Target: 3-deoxy-manno-octulosonate cytidylyltransferase
Amino acid sequence: MAICSPSSESSSATSGRAWIVHALVAGAAVAVGAHAAAYFKWFRKGRSRVVGIIPARFASSRFEGKPLVHILGKPMIQRTWERAKLASTLDHIVVATDDERIAECCRGFGADVIMTSESCRNGTERCNEALLKLGKHYDIVVNIQGDEPLLEPDIIDGIVRALQGAPDAVFSTAVTSLKPEDGLDPNRVKCVVDNHGYAIYFSRGLIPFNKSGKVNPQFPYLLHLGIQSFDSKFLRIYPQLPPTPLQLEEDLEQLKVLENGYKMKVIKVDHDAHGVDTPEDVEKIEALMRERSIS
Model:
């Protein structure tokens, strides 16, 4: 899986590799109030130190204990951790959890673990708490979803480099092509971007939605991949931002960022999403791994 950043439409057309969708300038002076000037000074500084954090919780309405489910003999969170370790941009990787069962499992296969509060409302807040407890300075925090055991390390490197290359950005994430059959699946989050590659909106519903009410197989719908990276200073601000109506309605963390006026840099990658959302997905992942001779 490759990622590249086009300098023009022609160079993009001649490239057979994945392309980077341009994005992001930070807005929301309202959110930072009188501190806006100081806030934007942060963006001019280098972002060399990067930590990857895998937030994990045991409780889940759809799939309780999901991080510990075995995928061909290994806990899923171990497989995610092993994939993340292949990324070249990460200086350190930790698992952030509020459950001792997950912590014990992770320590058993050699992962560093940070215990976080049960009060964390989402993975982003868990990443923020873990960052504070690490006690070390990092410029970028990568929130790595623990339910993508086949995540490509190139995607991690791609969103990190995208944020490093955009000093006025606070957030970066990745999308890939949406399969038509997944168009109406609420577990597959869709994304739309403007002509400059800025994220316009994320939804569990099909976006854009045409007046026929059907999926258009010719339209290049985008599927959001859960992985995202933050400027570490912005991550500390994030928990202070109140929940927003769209975020609560869609149950999507990234909408709070958009609703508060910030914009996101998005990269588009050539990657088949293989997330584990339900117990039924485990068999699908294992079958795919056998096809690819992944042990």
Q: What stands out?
A: The chain is about 30% helix and 20% strand. The longest strand covers residues 222-231.
